[in-house]
């Protein structure tokens, strides 16, 4: 059997028909967490004009990759960068990040950042090969309660 070829994939913005496959891909790639509803994450990114979810489709139109991009007026951010296991190591991750960077550039961003979970250090080499450097920041966070 021949190796999957990333040049056979099509990249485009997510559509309604892709959503379940995208969420399944994120689960398969261990990118979901109990405290984040992935369907809501997709819907939120699609609702705002400054964010998107890009998908890669194989020759059978199956979703085999994703990258979420968002620009908040200061920096572009990447989330949910994922490649289906059978296509890893074929350059698709690089293509997806490049497409997301281009989307951010067109949105007005001149800098891009992403967060890597400390439990996912294995992926640091991937980002290093794409030119990403440790920004030497500690990420802090809290939940915002809905306005009353
Ligand atoms: C990270 C991920 C998207 C990489 O996708 P991929 O399609 O395998 O990556 P590519 O084939 O485009 O690799 C691009 C480069 O990174 C390197 N690379 C890929 N994965 C790597 C790893 N785990 N460690 C070191 N280098 C890696 C490749 O060797 C290649 O280098 P080269 O261009 O110099 O030859 C994929 O492994 C994945 O989906 N992982 C699970 C989800 C995840 O953890 N996402 C990141 C969340 S922050």
From TrEMBL:
Q: Where are the transmembrane segments?
A: none
Q: Which residues form the N-acetyltransferase domain?
A: 9-148
SUPFAM superfamilies of this UniProt entry?
Acyl-CoA N-acyltransferases (Nat)
Q: Which UniProt keywords apply?
A: Acyltransferase, Transferase
Classification via Pfam families = Acetyltransf_1
Extract the PROSITE patterns matched here.
GNAT (PS51186)
Q: Which domain of life is it from?
A: Bacteria
In terms of InterPro entries, this protein maps to: Acyl_CoA_acyltransferase, Bact_Acetyltransf, GNAT_dom
Extract the NCBIfam families matched here: PRK03624.1 (NF002959)
Name-wise, this protein is: Ribosomal protein S18 acetylase RimI-like enzyme
Q: Which source organism does the UniProt entry give?
A: Isoptericola halotolerans
